[in-house]
Structure of DUF1330 domain-containing protein:
Amino acid sequence: MADLLIQQGRGDGLRYQDLENPADTWHWLENPPAAAKDGIPYAFIAALGDVTHPAPFLYTVELDIAEADLPAIYDWYEQEHLPLLTGVPGCIGGTRYRRLDGGAPNLLAAYRFERPEVNQSAAWIKARSTPWCDRVRPLFRGTRRFVRRLVD
């Protein structure tokens, strides 16, 4: 059973629209009903901060990581990356997921923002510029990043 279902273009749940490409809309359905089948299913891995309420902006990072490298990525996220990023002013919280259908990218991180430019702040850039980040970045394949806004 999925903890998150992302339906592109249509569906139930919160609607988040890509700021750079308004035609790209994700329907973000947490704890989807069993009957909801269309979309990309994800399993919850971890969260930090306030992730219980919709945020005005959602910054998503999709990563494709080789199976053998997942333990190193999980350690980095849990011990350093997620705590540092969710501590940046304007970041409300962050959640991590693993894709369930075998597709790529296989990991998703979603950060809830108060305003769209949080990931461009000096504090955010500093938080993602550590020696540990430098060591794990070569493990990333097919990274995709989007800032999305909540739409009615």
